């Protein structure tokens, strides 16, 4: 009996995959041409991309960088690339980019806003990235006083005295709590610094300046403009709106009637009014409410309004995060015997904030972009400045180049914020998937 | 600006502000700076140059006032204002003078409680159309689409003009002049209407200006002038006579080039001598130094020099003097005597 059974003794050598499923061809087939419909869509998309690029690229590349007016731009482009070519006039950006970035800020002091924003980023870093050494947090505490001093200049004693107010508040909290109980301590901690700032801080700063003069050239708010203005407003509104928003969100959930009513009223009022209305109030109406002759800085007014606006939205975003937490988390915190603040700090907020990250960051991005609305009340942000630049006879008629430059810069800022939020979400992804 | 409640509030508030800050001249002197409300950007009239210095025809007037009052034409704080913020900025005292191509109208003068101190540019609303449209008069624009800036007097003038001539049009509302230029060039409207000075500036930016014509009809009166708050006549006098000094200087042939010569060697014309302070004490009557007008004229030149420098035939805007010529040359500029 012939033994017909076949037993393979060695492994079949691995075969190369079919040529249609590897390499660039396989990738194309799998990702772009996997079905007739996808193939058609791919071709259509390629056609669209080609159409856009074939119109935009020549315009971007066949451009003039050296002209001193729009007319000269056109002549240069016609001379270099033939009559009838339309190209970008990037010369306007070359001549005016410093204005679009810094506004009317004195050019020999450009280092100050640069240093201030660098410092602000450095101060935010330990808050944003927990891997950094904790000692940097001291810098974060100092930045709110150093950054405005660098931007506006003046006597060094003003920020020192303002900072002293917080120290006084802390001291009042300690002393009064020990002497007259917790609630009195909290009230004293609120009242003492306000009294200090309203009446004594300026006198003290003036005295100290007289005794030990030290200051840098003051720069008026009118000189602020361009991206510097947007970043100043955006940075302050973003950093302040988160804590204020958290407080408002907690207040809205509070059992204390008055606190709850105030928070709900504030949030609903601010959310019910367009930002542009608040800006008009800041720039026009406040002038009438204040005694004549008072000079309440216009940028400060705008910053306050934008911050309030952002805080109201932030409060609702965070309330969404709070609402998403299961009831059990609150009860677990109670079961552990934690008091209200400890429960919020250790259990509720870390989870609620994590849930809210996408909403928080999109509020940030929205606030940053909303800063362009200040051009309507006559502040020269990048958009306002593009209008002023066009008002020069040389550059009248330049539109796309200026808007393109501004859009590119805004994109850089907003895209990095968005990437940071994705990083944060990945880092905080602790639950099982 | 049509809301009566708002206007009422503005009026009350401006009364309060006006009464409280009466002595603007003293304020300016003690501050050492003139706060001048200007346009955020209008070709030929106000724009920041590459160094961040404001330049333009309206701006030059503020510099002249600063030179007359403070002796330094650079002692001006320019406050860019928009069409919406300009009147409150003036009424609330944020600015001392508004030189922002503002049309002198009855309601602004009377109801809003401002004092227009004169006219530094006589403008009027016109139309620009592509030559290919084949239109030679605005009355032939029946059924045309017209690009128009919303919320301005030009919108109302346009409606009046078409109603009077019993023809129809379709408005294309736009927000800024830059948008208007783009829309017009893209063919979104057959005609674009705004002040004639703006049309000239717009046409100058086109790749082929000769393909567009500005129609001969001027359908409105737009006397543009500087204004101050009601109730401070001393300050209004200072601004009014600074403007008059610039105009009179052109009439008498006093220019920034020959003014030093004329001051050093007074002429036999007493009017010029009084203007330049070498005779009489006109400056003291205003509360200013005797050479106030000399400083004002030296700041940028007389009216004609300023016109030529910023908006005249030698600039890309290329406006003719037209109504803005001296009365001796068929225009409307007529400075009262310096006596």
UniProtKB/TrEMBL annotation, chain A:
Boundaries of every ABC transmembrane type-1 domain copy: 227-421
Record keywords: Cell membrane, Membrane, Transmembrane, Transmembrane helix, Transport
Pfam family, one: BPD_transp_1
UniProt main location, coarse: membrane
GO cellular component: ATP-binding cassette (ABC) transporter complex
Keyword Transmembrane helix: yes
Cellular location(s): Cell inner membrane; Cell membrane
TM ranges: 39-61, 109-129, 136-151, 183-212, 224-250, 262-286, 298-318, 355-380, 400-420
Membrane topology: Multi-pass membrane protein
GO biological process: amino acid transport
Top-level division of the source organism's lineage: Bacteria
InterPro entries named in the record: AA_ABC_transptr_permease_3TM, ArtM/GltK/GlnP/TcyL/YhdX-like, MetI-like, MetI-like_sf
GO terms for MF: transmembrane transporter activity
PROSITE patterns from the UniProt entry: ABC_TM1 (PS50928)
Family: Belongs to the binding-protein-dependent transport system permease family. HisMQ subfamily.
PANTHER family named among the record's database cross-references: INNER MEMBRANE AMINO-ACID ABC TRANSPORTER PERMEASE PROTEIN YHDY (PTHR30614:SF41), MEMBRANE COMPONENT OF AMINO ACID ABC TRANSPORTER (PTHR30614)
Protein name (database record): L-glutamine ABC transporter membrane protein /L-glutamate ABC transporter membrane protein /L-aspartate ABC transporter membrane protein /L-asparagine ABC transporter membrane protein
Species of the source: Rhodovulum euryhalinum
TrEMBL record, chain B:
SUPFAM superfamilies: Periplasmic binding protein-like II
Pfam families: SBP_bac_3 (PF00497)
GO biological process: one example: amino acid transport
Residues annotated as transmembrane: none
Signal peptide: 1-22
Protein name as it appears in the record: L-glutamine-binding protein /L-glutamate-binding protein /L-aspartate-binding protein /L-asparagine-binding protein
InterPro entries with a match to the protein in the record: Bact_solute-bind_prot3 (IPR051455), Solute-binding_3/MltF_N (IPR001638)
Family per record: Belongs to the bacterial solute-binding protein 3 family.
Family matches, as PANTHER family: AMINO ACID ABC TRANSPORTER PERMEASE (PTHR30085), AMINO-ACID ABC TRANSPORTER-BINDING PROTEIN YHDW-RELATED (PTHR30085:SF7)
Keywords (A to Z) from UniProt: Signal, Transport
Keyword Transport tagged: yes
Domain Solute-binding protein family 3/N-terminal residue range list: 33-262
């Amino acid at each position: 009996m012939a033994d017909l059974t076949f037993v393979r003794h060695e492994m079949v050598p691995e075969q190369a995959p079919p040529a249609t499923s590897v390499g660039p061809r396989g990738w194309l087939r799998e990702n772009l041409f996997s079905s007739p419909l996808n193939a058609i869509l791919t071709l259509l998309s390629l056609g669209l991309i080609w159409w856009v690029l074939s119109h935009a690229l020549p315009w971007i590349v066949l451009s003039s960088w050296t002209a001193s007016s729009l007319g000269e731009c056109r002549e240069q482009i016609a001379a270099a690339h033939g009559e009838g070519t339309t190209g970008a006039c990037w010369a306007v950006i070359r001549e005016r980019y410093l204005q679009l970035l810094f506004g009317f800020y004195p050019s020999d002091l450009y280092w100050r806003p640069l240093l201030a924003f660098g410092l602000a980023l450095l101060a935010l870093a330990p808050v944003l990235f927990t891997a950094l050494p904790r000692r940097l947090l001291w810098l974060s505490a100092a930045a709110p006083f150093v950054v405005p001093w660098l931007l506006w200049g003046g006597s060094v004693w003003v920020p020192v005295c303002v900072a002293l107010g917080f120290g006084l508040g802390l001291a009042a909290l300690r002393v009064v709590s020990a002497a007259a109980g917790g609630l009195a301590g909290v009230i004293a901690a609120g009242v003492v610094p306000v009294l200090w700032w309203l009446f004594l801080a300026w006198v003290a700063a003036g005295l100290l300046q007289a005794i030990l003069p030290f200051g840098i050239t003051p720069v008026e708010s009118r000189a602020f403009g361009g991206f510097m203005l947007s970043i100043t407003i955006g940075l302050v509104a973003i950093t302040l709106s988160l804590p204020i928003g958290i407080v408002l969100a907690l207040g809205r959930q509070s059992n204390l009637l008055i606190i709850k009513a105030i928070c709900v009223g504030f949030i609903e009022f601010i959310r019910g009014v367009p930002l542009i209305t608040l800006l008009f109030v800041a720039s026009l109406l406040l002038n009438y409410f204040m005694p004549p002759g008072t000079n309440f800085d216009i940028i400060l007014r705008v910053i306050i309004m934008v911050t309030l606006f952002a805080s109201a939205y932030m409060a609702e975003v965070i309330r969404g995060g709070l609402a998403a937490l299961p009831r059990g988390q609150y009860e677990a915190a109670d079961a552990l015997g934690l008091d209200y603040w400890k429960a919020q700090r250790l259990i509720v907020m870390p989870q609620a904030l994590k849930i809210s990250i996408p909403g928080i960051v999109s509020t940030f991005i929205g606030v940053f972009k909303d800063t362009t609305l200040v051009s309507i009340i006559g502040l020269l942000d990048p958009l306002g400045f593009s209008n002023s630049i066009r008002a020069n006879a040389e550059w009248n008629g330049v539109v796309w180049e200026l808007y393109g430059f501004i859009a590119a810069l805004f994109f850089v800022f907003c895209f990095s914020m968005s990437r940071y939020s994705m990083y944060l979400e990945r880092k905080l992804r602790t639950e099982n998937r | 600006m049509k809301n009566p409640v708002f206007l009422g509030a503005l009026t009350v508030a401006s009364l309060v502000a006006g009464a409280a800050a009466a002595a603007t001249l003293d304020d300016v002197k003690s501050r050492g700076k003139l706060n001048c409300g200007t346009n955020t950007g209008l070709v030929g009239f106000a724009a920041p140059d590459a160094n961040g210095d404001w330049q333009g025809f309206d701006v030059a007037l503020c510099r002249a006032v600063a030179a007359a009052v403070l002796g330094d034409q650079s002692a001006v704080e320019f406050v860019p204002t928009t069409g919406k913020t300009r009147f409150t900025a003036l009424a609330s005292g944020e600015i001392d003078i508004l030189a922002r191509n503002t049309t002198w109208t009855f309601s602004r003068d009377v109801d809003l409680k401002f004092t227009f101190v004169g006219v530094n540019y006589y403008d009027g609303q016109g139309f620009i159309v592509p030559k290919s449209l084949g239109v030679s008069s605005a009355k032939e624009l029946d059924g045309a689409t017209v690009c128009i800036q919303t919320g301005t007097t030009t919108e109302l003038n346009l409606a009046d003009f078409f109603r009077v001539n019993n023809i129809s049009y379709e408005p294309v509302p736009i927000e800024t002049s830059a948008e208007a230029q783009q829309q017009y060039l893209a063919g979104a409207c057959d005609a674009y209407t705004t002040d004639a000075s703006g049309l000239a500036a717009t046409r100058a930016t086109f790749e082929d200006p000769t393909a567009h014509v500005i129609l001969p009809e001027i359908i409105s009166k737009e006397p543009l002038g500087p204004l101050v708050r009601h109730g401070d006549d001393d300050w209004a006098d200072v601004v009014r006579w600074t403007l008059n000094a610039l105009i009179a200087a052109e009439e008498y042939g006093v220019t920034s080039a020959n003014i030093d010569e004329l001051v050093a060697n007074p002429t036999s014309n007493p009017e010029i001598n009084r203007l330049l302070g070498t005779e009489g004490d006109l400056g003291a009557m205003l509360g200013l130094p005797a050479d106030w007008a000399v400083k004002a004229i030296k700041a940028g030149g007389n009216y004609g020099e300023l016109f030529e420098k910023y908006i005249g035939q030698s600039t890309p805007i290329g406006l003719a003097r037209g109504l803005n010529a001296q009365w001796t040359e068929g225009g409307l500029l007529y400075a009262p005597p310096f006596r």
